[in-house]
Description:
The chain is an alpha+beta fold.
Amino acid sequence: MYETHYHRPTSLADAAKRFAAGADARYLAGGQTLIPTMKQRLAAPSDVIDLSRLPELKGIAVAGGVVTIGAATTHAEVATSEAVRKAIPALAKLAGLIGDPAVRHKGTIGGSLANNDPAADYPAAVLALGATIHTDKRAIPAEAFFTGLFTTALESGELITKVAFPVPAKAAYEKFDNPASRYAMTGVFVATPGTGGVRVAVTGAGAKGVFRATALEQALTGKFAADAIEGLAIDPSGLLSDIHGSAAYRANLVKVLAQRAVAAL
């Protein structure tokens, strides 16, 4: 059994200090990724720094047309928040579709985004809504945050503190999930920003992670109706192909789920 030092910091500054002092420190949010990885001996951090009780990372606020969610806010808290349900119903719905109740009551929005699993749900909302990820060092726009499979623009030791979502005119999320893990085999988030146009983000299908579906955006900007994309053929190149579904299958899911999201609006 390897040795790991557990820390429960009292502030963000304390957390950063403990991280810097560790030989191979890791932050712990909800633990839905790190703990299983440690159990499988795929990670052996020298120090585990628990962020779950830091007040600076908690809370949900709506002001000035923006929904701001603390990084340590759980999926269950987002799903049941009346403020989120009123401002961005699709975001509350998305949070309620993540995993199962046990996962939703432990997993956090910050942890999910920092991990950037290619089948995670939140990245689609962040990209489609044009959110901003705030860290203890800077603010990162959604377009610059996701850089590849399980990789982001975060630097070593950089910590997500909150996520700011502009309130759209309307938005919807549709998901085809794996019945065992409930990860998205494909998930499509459609949003119409107050500035005009349509943004469509796809998760679960891309070989490099979440991405904007520009062909769908262009078609829906011209005519916001499900039949506007009926004749479109989604290019399967660059999409995932595995035991759960081929790239062609996922390409069809992108189109079908986008149509469902538009119809729901």
